[in-house]
Structure formats: C-alpha cells, structure tokens
Amino acid sequence: MIKIITDSTSDLPAALVKQYNIGVVPLYLIWGDQQYIDNVNITKEEFFARLPIDPVAPTTSQPSVEDFAKAFRDAKAEGAEEIICVTVANDLSGTFQSATNASRDAELKVHVVDSAATTMGLGFQALAAARALEAGGSVEDALNAIKPVRENLVTMVGLQTIEYVVRGGRLGGAMKWLGSTLSLKPIVTLDHANGGKLVKLKMQRTQRGLMNEVIKEFTKRLKSTQKLHVAVCHGGDLAVGKELLAMVEEALHPVETVLTEYGPVLGVHAGPGGFALTGYSE
Predict the structure, then answer these.
(1) Do the domains 2-27+62-151 and 154-281 sit in the same CATH topology, yes or no?
(2) Domain boundaries 2-27+62-151, CATH class
(3) In this structure, are strands 34-37 and 28-31 parallel, antiparallel, or unpaired?
(4) How high is the pLDDT of residue 59?
(5) Alpha-helix residue ranges (DSSP H) falling in the chain
(6) What residue ranges do the domains of the chain occupy?
C-alpha cells in the first residue's frame, strides 16, 4: 500500500479524506498563552467568532518533526510500504521542512512534495496522487500526476479587509500604507510558479465587485477551461461560498467542483468572510 499524507491547510473536505484514506497532519494555532490544534480542539465557528473581537492576535506554527514522524509510523503500521507527503508551500510555512526532516529517519520510503500552494491548491495535488493510485498506478505514476496539477494551478483570493494578511506579514511592508483604507477589499493571487508567494492584484469596494473580479482574474490566468477542476474555499460564510461556486459553474462549466471552508490556520491570515477560488485544467 502507498499512503498519501498532507497537512491541514489543504482544506480537504472530510468526505474526500475518508474516501481516499488520506492522512492529515495538523498545524497549530497559538492564541495568547493557549495552543490549539488546527481543526481539532478549536472549531471554525469558535475561531471566526473570536477573531474580530479579541485584541490578542493569534499566530500559527508548523507541525513538528515528531508530528510527521508519528504520521509516518502510523502509516507503516497501517500497512504502507511507501508514503507520498504533499505539504503547503515551503515559502508560506516550515511544514515542508518538518516533513523532510522526519522523512530522513522514517522506516519506509517517504516522498515529500512541496505543493507551492495552500488550501485546495494543495488539496487537489493530494487528490491527484490518490486517484492515480486508486486507478492502479505506481508511486511514480502518483508523483507524475501531481506535476500537471501544480503547473496548471490558479488560485485567487478575495478578502474582506487587508488587515489580517498585512498583520501576518504575508504581503510585506509595501502594503502597510493600505492600513488607512481597510474598507477596501483586496484580491491577491498565489504565484505557484514561484513557490506560492502572495501577490496583491487589485482592490474592490463591494462584495459583488470582489466576486466578479476574482472570477475574471481566475479565468484570465487559466491555460484552458477544458476539463476544469474548481474549488471554492470560504471563511465562515457558507452563503458566500455557495454563491461564488454557482457563479463559477455558470461561467466555466467545470467537470469537478469542491466547496469547503478554510480553518483557523489560514483564517489568521485571510480573516473572516474571505474566499479562495482555486483550480486547474487537465
């Protein structure tokens, strides 16, 4: 058996995790003197309710080497002979390095893959590997299935405010001047060709303008709209997620859609009410 493992920033719906028996290693949320395990001992509802009103800003931390080592041991005990471990972009987190360090002492072969992505951009890569294995493919087939997903991946993010992403340092000092215009809604993209770095694109004043512009920029960056796989990941607002997904389905007619919610670790940087539109064409 070959085991697929990813981390909690993949935002894979529980049904898909179960269907493909994917292992998920959680990241950590540090809030004051408390440490939480992403999506384990703090719910998304609790997190998004507390975030706007708590004067203490939460931070995040990657899984430890031992966290990954345990996941690898558990996979071996489950019967795995090899592991493919796909992580959040190395430029966004130390998670890839923790997994790499743990793989060196593992008792079985572990292939650690930097997704150059997060949320369902990462999730789609783990799914591609799992589906290749389900179809009877080898480890090499699964690793090869990841590459075209990453190479064709487009991710657009719409935020309700620049506040959280600036506070987390994800857009750099050049963006701090926008602190006086927090009513504007920013659109950013992940530059998957350059390690998954965040790049600011535009600002919108209205929610409708934000959603329309995200779809427009997403479509413009796709290499093709044929056999399109799309995911919408919302930040605590299911109605917004459903509305955006319906707009995407009407405009692009994807062959696969996924609706999911990002958790506390991504929420620290994206804030409540944001959304990500990510996808790739075959």
Answers:
(1) no
(2) alpha beta
(3) antiparallel
(4) 92
(5) 14-19, 44-50, 65-78, 95-104, 119-134, 139-152, 163-167, 207-221, 238-252, 264-270
(6) 2-27+62-151, 154-281
Residues of the chain falling short of pLDDT 70: 166-182
Phi-psi domain of 201 (left: phi exceeds 0; alpha: psi -120 through 50; beta: other): alpha
User: What's the CATH number of domain 154-281, 3.30.1180.10, 3.30.930.20, 2.40.300.10, 3.40.470.10?
Assistant: 3.30.1180.10
CB of 23 closer than 8 Å to CB of 74:
yes
What amino acid is encoded at 173 in this protein? G
Give percent above pLDDT 70 in the chain. 94
Max alpha carbon distance in the chain (Å)?
55
**Tens digits of per-residue pLDDT, 161-192?**
777 776 655 544 444 445 445 578 888 888 88
Report strand pairing: 185-191 vs 197-204.
antiparallel
The alpha carbon of 196 is separated from its chain's Cα centroid by a whole number of angstroms, namely: 11
pLDDT (0 to 100) of residue 166: 66
Q: Which two tokens stand for residue 75?
A: 């996979």
CA dihedral 160, 186, 191, 223 (to 10 degrees): 100
